[in-house]
From TrEMBL:
It comes from the Bacteria. One of its GO terms (molecular function) is iron-sulfur cluster binding. The keyword Iron applies. The keyword Iron-sulfur applies. Keywords: Iron, Iron-sulfur, Metal-binding, S-adenosyl-L-methionine. Signal peptide: none annotated. Residues 2-95 form the Radical SAM core domain. This is Radical SAM core domain-containing protein. PANTHER family: ANAEROBIC SULFATASE-MATURATING ENZYME HOMOLOG ASLB-RELATED (PTHR43273), RADICAL SAM DOMAIN PROTEIN (PTHR43273:SF8).
Amino acid sequence: MLHGGEPLLAGRAKLGRVIAELRGQLDGLCDLDLRVHTNGVLLDDAFLDLFAEHSVLVGVSLDGDRVANDRHRRYADGRSSYDRVIRAVELLRRRRDLYAGLLCTMDVANDPLAVYRALAELDPPRIDFLLPHATWDAPPPRPTATAYADWLIQIFDVWLEEGARVPVRMFESILRTSRGESSLTESLGLEPTDLVVIETDGAYEQADSLKVAFDGAPSTGLNVVTDDLDAVAAHTGILARQQGLGGLCDTCRACPVVDSCGGGLYAHRYRTGSAFANPSVYSADLLKLITHVRHRIAMPTHALPNDTIEALAAGHGGEADMKHLLAGQRTLRRGLLAGVHTHGSAADGWDLLTRLDAEHRGAVDTVLDHPYVREWAARCLTGGGHLGYLANIAAAAAVRAGVDAEIVLQDVDGVFHLPTLGAFEAAPGSDGRLLVKDERFTLVGHPDAVWHPVRTLEANGFTVVLEDTDPHRHSHGHPVAGRLSEEEADAWQRAFSVAWTLIETDHPDYAAGLRAALSTVVPLAPPSAGGDVSSAARHAFGSVAIALPEDPATLALLLMHEFQHVKLGAVLDMVDLYDRGHAGLYYAPWRPDLRPLEGLLQGTYAHLAVSDFWRARRRAAGGRPEVQFALWRKHTADAIDSLTGSQALTPLGTRFVAGMRRSVEPWLAEPVPAEATAMAAELAERHRAKSGAQ
């Protein structure tokens, strides 16, 4: 951004030399997005020709209609500058490829709707409303307690009613951050600020807005002649604006709109004595405005709050965080069921299910929460599922609700399955008419049908389903076990009891999320070649599939590992962390093949838990755990570097991966015996060489 003062005072020749030098030095090294911001008084076609030659976008300061603009933007002799600014904007309207937008500094003495109408009529690509610079030491003019919010709310309501036809950066940023997305401005949201100013004498400075705090506030003491940008990035003032929620004062961290407000513009927090460790001087206005916007807009039902994003990015997530993911899954499953219904068939099942949903929603939710209901629905919508199974879902809900019903079930792979309850095994070709009466259920006409109820595993008050009856569990890329014998089920119970105790004891941060959202474990068939096998299915939130390993500690590891995939899959159902059109392939240290970006992200997230597992195990025993910890912490850190270097993460994805990095970085500094480190390095090199990755 080329700005001043007024940058056009430098003249066309000097600006041309500056722009050409920047292009010559930086093109090919980075994507140079050059912009200039001007008061518009000197802007003419000659300047615009220069800017067109070098692809420089132009923004103009305009505070609204003539009355509003003349309040602060007059010549020194008192003459109005309004007509010349409007002339400049009209030039930009004819050369729209150069038109960046309009910037309006608010003054609550102006009529807000007159200001908005005047700006909108100039058809800008975007409008920026700026709160006037102020601090607690020098507060803004304030005729009422929330004058600035009230002023903006009048504009927002009209903007919304007219279909938001002109983008307004402040309003869009509130909407985006309320959905868990990134802000479009440094004055809102929790994203790190990456702004550095280079003065004409070569001095590096922080944001110009800091000048309002105290004399010399933007200074870094660094200069382009003696210092590089890495040194600037390490400056305490720059670092202070990289901390997100953790960099805010206690008042802000406890605020219900902090994920949108972000503490407000950094400069506006200043107060003598406590420096920037305060809310914005506009905090009351921001709270009122953001709350109003959220109430007016039908926000997505399941936006992820900032603290949930931070907890999940760290690799963890507790009960409250899992509730957000589960709520999103419930809505998704209901939408899929409605889509299946529109494909026809199973009208009786749909009618019964909708009737039960109106009167016994809890029972319906319990059945729809079964992980493989979504798996079945997804198959139906791609032409591969049994549409009639909708009747089985409705029947299971009727049983759980204690409602009398009679309905024909769908035979899937030789069983009449009732999700969350179990399955009838009957003679092939049987008519599966289920009668639910007096809180009992029977398969009519099949006295010899064998009922296989679901089994459960329990440890320390935590219960999960041991799912060996659902015909839709064949979705994990590995053969599933058949119906377990009593001895096999007992072996699972013994192993689960020990494994869960280990997780609760050594990994409480993971245990909280598992207890809240892991509902189902599917036994896989033991692999013929030996070794451990486990899987998570993308459409089966709440379930993991595992071949029972030889020792309970490995079962604990596999539960933690696979549940990471479950959590991240649910996050990706709600928000975009990466560009889904990105086609790059990446080395993954846990796979023999190159992986697409989502595969690398999923694997890296899962190996946060793997690294942490071995980190805890090495305290109990050295040897192999030391090697495994050294190996997986390095692999995970390297994979995070690959994710960051892909240039395909969204702003929220960048923030999420940064949270993953914060978990791993302290582990890299933990001491590991030299022999274990050497062995880990050798294993890593062997895998990379075998994969053929560069």
